[in-house]
Amino acid sequence: MNSLLPFRKSVHFRAGRGAHGMGQQQAGAKGEDVVVKVPPGTVVRSSDGVALLELMRPGQRALLLPGGRGGRGNAAFKSGANKVPRIAEKGEKGPEMWLELELKLVADVGIVGAPNAGKSTLLSVISAAKPTIANYPFTTLLPNLGVVSLDFDATMVVADLPGLLEGAHRGYGLGHEFLRHSERCSVLVHVVDGSGQQPEYEFEAVRLELELFSPSLVDKPFVVVYNKMDLPEAAEKWKIFRENLQAQGIEPYCISAINRQGTQDVIHAAYKLLQKERQRMKETEEWSGPENLNHVADAIKKERRSAMNEFEIFHDKGKNTWNVVGAGIERFVQMTNWQYSDSLKRFQHALEACGVNRTLIKRGVKEGDTVIVGEMEMVWNDEPKSTRPSNTMNSKDDAVRWPEFG
């Protein structure tokens, strides 16, 4: 894939459902994974904007949501006292999540600079790309990509990025549209309009915007290109511009992109920096080891394995309602199959064992109060100090009481 456009038509993805268990102690088959394809350079964020992971290279896979575990059959509850238990679990519901996807361009070299500096012209003469070119700002509204060939097996992908205005780090002009793509480039080619009134100021202004948006951008290796040497006003200012940058330890290149003069020197300088950056990244990856792209699913699994005794209780005095909230106890409720009488007894014992009943009593629960745990709603019964499902209490003479239920 090379874009996120397909997600405009399809936004819901659901993995396959596991099969039911069968006789002879046979577990049901697992549900099939759903694979969502995204283009390289995709940033995956949670619905509240927190970055979860990035998929940068073709073939990378990341597990975001694990499936729910299967429910156990009655054979799993067999004991010496109960050879044929009448109980079985439901399968655990799988987690759900809303995600935001953002595509950041992945290119080897990014051509940056102020509007109308000649970035698109440079891309058009060094590659086969045909970007829109005109003598006014913001001709480029979206990045253009071109492949530059230096030799039989030496190529690099070059991106012409939208022009940058002062204040771009705050979103002015096409600021964020420009800057988010520049983060993905290994090397930057900074094009300066030599015919401008103050080329030195233009260079410093763009560098400042890069730094204000992300300090890592100014640390990227870069080449400075002084363009439009075919114009007299640019040629006059070149000497002062070069001396100014040389004083900062930077050796700029002068070119006329429209006449293809000096462009090959720029290509080879950028490729030399790219080779060094690729080697540095390779050494860094070898040192740090393989990245765990399944950390989101691992965190969800850990949270869902939380103990039954990890819970909070919230009291609504106006409605006499007590809400018991905890991943472990709520999962227990969801997986309980209430068709079996042994399931009700097992659940009441679980409430006692994990401390829910003791905590309710300590907090001041009263006869008739509603206690909600996950999808189960119960009514508190002072005698014998327990809860029971609200749909079993039809009258005060109701003989069905926990834990003696069944």
Automatic annotation (TrEMBL):
Occurrences of domain OCT (ranges): 303-382
Gene Ontology terms for molecular function: GTP binding; GTPase activity; magnesium ion binding
Cofactor(s), names only, from the UniProt record: Mg(2+)
Claim: Magnesium is one of the keywords in the record: yes
Family of the protein in this entry: Belongs to the TRAFAC class OBG-HflX-like GTPase superfamily. OBG GTPase family.
UniProt subcellular location: Plastid, Chloroplast
Organism from which the protein derives: Eragrostis curvula (weeping love grass)
Every OBG-type G domain range: 107-275
Listed name of the protein: Probable GTP-binding protein OBGC1, chloroplastic
Gene Ontology cellular-component annotations: chloroplast; mitochondrion
Every Obg domain range: 1-106
InterPro entries found in the cross-reference section: G_OBG (IPR031167), GTP-bd (IPR006073), GTP-bd_Obg/CgtA (IPR014100), GTP-bd_prot_GTP1/OBG_C_sf (IPR036346), GTP1-OBG_CS (IPR006074), GTP1_OBG_dom (IPR006169), GTP1_OBG_dom_sf (IPR036726), OBG_GTPase (IPR045086)
